[in-house]
Amino acid sequence: MELNEWQQTWSGGLDRILCMQGGDDDGSYARNSDAPASAISLSKPLLIAAIQSMRLFHGEASLRIADLGCATGFNTLSTIDLVIDTLRGRYNKDCAFEPEFEAFFSDLPSNDFNSLFRSLPPFIDNKKKRYYAAGVPGSFYHRLFPKGKLHVAVSLSALHWLSRIPEVVLDKRSLAWNKGRAWIDGAKKEVVEAYAKQSDEDLRAFLQCRREEIVEGGTLFILMAGRQGLEQPENQLGDPDSRAKHPFTSSMDQAWEDLLNEGLIDEETRDTFNIPAYMRSIEEVEKAFHQCGGFEIQRLEYQRIVEHSKEKQEEWIRDPVSYGRAKANLVRATLRPIVEAHLGPKLSEELFKRFEKRASADIEMLHKTCFYGVIVVCAIRK
Ligand SMILES: C[S@@+](CC[C@H](N)C(=O)[O-])C[C@H]1O[C@@H](n2cnc3c(N)ncnc32)[C@H](O)[C@@H]1O
Asked: What InterPro entries does this protein map onto (predicted)?
């Protein structure tokens, strides 16, 4: 049967499975990255300010910039451009000298690096490259570069993805067994604690690796999905509407329940699927930086981003089916590889179809304006 052929236990590590959907069709990440793009636009002034205030490296022939968790598409390319343009402007002004630039696009090995490489900018003229690009496959929870290699490291909308699902969450006998839910918002205390512990270990591992790789005076800029400090981790998403409308909550759980009720999967298959994401608070991020040491935090803030533009919302109110389709494409773009690893391609598509139906049926929700929370950190390697 299809399910048995495909079902994998990937609780031990997601490195080989997790990625955003490649290519450029309707279900690809490249076409469904508006929310990360809004987050980047919002944090752009902070990134520019961070690059403007970092020290210049005199005598370095080339500067090295990495985007960790780059995926594919416009967001990573425009971010690398922004960092390089800002640095280039500073070197021209202050040093009358322009170093060469190397850009490292890093993501898990399953990322669609081919699509990314095809969209790289061409030569400025026949001789000169805007920057020298390279792909670096691997998990940012491990070392990716030699010591003291990087001058700037950015990671955008990526660090809320955990390295693994905590084992206790998948253990039927454990109090932390996450029955009937695909994610942790509103889950039992024990489930959320297990995720929080994993998140804590992961963030410390990330920072320890970057502490080795970034040169003294270099910049680390992180933007990740996060939650407001006042909220307990059981509430990952803030206000009740934003919680109910988030693609990982109600419609997702209903879609799994539909597959179960239709006899397409059994309960265990539903209950062993979990989404490996955790929204940290400012306090949790600050604690990890202090425990790791080696960085001076220059900025650490929480920001709230409206889910869609007013125009988009009005368009969807007129056509709820297209809303369901857009939401399902977003879920396909972000979750397809891990859902397929669990269910196989055919049943995964059935799940996404149920999700689409559930999302477009929830007309009341369409009228609500919802928000995503993000945490932005800018730190200098001491
Ligand atoms: C939502 S996308 C963000 C992509 C891009 N930075 C942007 O802003 O559009 C998250 C990316 O993080 C990557 N990612 C998740 N966990 C990772 C890990 N442990 N190591 C490296 N990349 C990871 C995913 O593969 C995915 O490409």
From this structure: MeTrfase_7, MeTrfase_capping, SAM-dependent_MTases_sf
Q: How far is CA 190 from the centre of its chain?
A: 24
Q: What is the percentage of the chain residues whose pLDDT exceeds 90? A: 60
Q: Is 372 in the pocket of ligand 1 (CB under 6 A)?
A: no
Q: Which of 70, 113, 142 to mutate to test the pocket of ligand 1 (most atoms within 8 A of CB)?
A: 70
What span, in angstroms and rounded, lies between the C-alpha atoms of 371 and 242? 6
33 lines ligand 1 (CB under 6 A): yes
pLDDT in tens, 317-356: 888 888 888 888 888 888 988 899 899 999 999 999 999 9
For ligand 1, whether the C-beta of 76 sits within 6 Å is: yes
At the fourth CATH level, which superfamily is domain 2-381?
Vaccinia Virus protein VP39 (3.40.50.150)
- The residues with which 137 forms a beta bridge, in sequence order, are 107
Using the mean position of ligand 1's atoms as its centre, give its distance from the Cα of residue 263 in Å. Answer: 34
289 in contact with ligand 1, CB cutoff 6 A? no
Highest mean pLDDT among 137-151, 159-173, 351-365: 137-151
Alpha carbons 170 and 173: distance in angstroms, whole number = 9
- Does ligand 1 come within 6 angstroms of the Cβ of 155? no
Domain ranges of the chain: 2-381
Q: Which residues contact 58 (CB under 8 A, 6 or more apart)?
A: 95
Instruction: Report how far ligand 1's centroid is from the alpha carbon of 34 (Å).
Output: 15
Q: Which residues contact 122 (CB under 8 A, 6 or more apart)?
A: none
The span from the CA of 243 to the CA of 245, in Å, is 6
